[in-house]
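ok, trying the design again with the full structure, not the truncated one.
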């Protein structure tokens, strides 16, 4: 039991205890806490910024690689659809692959169909390198020999000195430093401009295709893949009988 004097002493101590329990942070403590949080936030932001930049670089690299793969897939598709125009008169045969050292012209089957469902005929496709840019040109579908010869002439003109109409049919592909072609004929890789093997000796057909075509391209760093790529295409019905 508290006496009056003891009760007074307890009452005098109570506010002090209550004041001590309600005491908050000092200004120095708050400043230290804010400073630490600012430092942590800055470090976190720098980490997130580095992650975002790495992700953007990786995505750009993936996009460039995807473009390169698409272009090479188109190259393979054009070759797989090659269609030499043969004739009983060898002077009237049209070679499905024509290379002049600068432009490659191909005669291939058209994959689009006419509105009435009929076969669209043939396309003349050309590939060339101009101003360090790989380009592809494609004619409208042709169904007559005269239209085919005209399309081949237009493709040749496009490769040398394109008109505005010719340029409207071209598609810029990828930057390229250089490209080179080789033909596999008579069981050996040869210069495409060489006359050796340009004629099918069994039939005398001037429109005969090479047994295989080797493409070598030199890529700049801007394509995402620096260096040389070699891609071989083999004629589907080719059979090497060399022993």
């Amino acid at each position: 039991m508290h006496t009056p004097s003891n009760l007074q002493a307890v009452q005098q101590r109570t506010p002090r205890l209550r004041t001590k329990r309600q005491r908050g942070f000092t200004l120095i403590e708050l400043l230290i806490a804010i400073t630490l949080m600012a430092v942590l936030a800055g470090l976190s932001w720098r980490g997130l910024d580095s992650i975002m930049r790495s992700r953007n670089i990786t995505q750009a690299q993936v996009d460039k690689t995807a473009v390169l793969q698409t272009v090479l897939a188109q190259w393979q598709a054009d070759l797989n659809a090659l269609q030499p125009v043969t004739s009983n008169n060898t002077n009237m045969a049209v070679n499905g692959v024509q290379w002049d050292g600068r432009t490659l012209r191909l005669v291939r089957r058209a994959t689009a169909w006419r509105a009435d469902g009929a076969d669209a005929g043939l396309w003349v496709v050309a590939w060339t390198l101009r101003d360090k840019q790989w380009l592809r040109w494609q004619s409208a579908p042709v169904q007559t020999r005269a239209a085919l010869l005209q399309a081949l002439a237009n493709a040749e003109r496009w490769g040398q000195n394109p008109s505005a109409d010719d340029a409207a049919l071209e598609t810029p592909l990828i930057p390229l430093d250089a490209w080179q072609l080789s033909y596999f004929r008579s069981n050996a890789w040869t210069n495409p401009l060489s006359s050796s093997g340009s004629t099918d000796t069994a039939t005398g057909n001037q429109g005969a295709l090479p047994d295989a075509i080797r493409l070598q391209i030199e890529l700049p760093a801007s394509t995402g893949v620096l260096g040389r790529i070699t891609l071989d295409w083999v004629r589907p019905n080719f059979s090497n009988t060399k022993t």
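Keeping the full-length input from now on. The two ends are 121 Å apart (CA to CA).
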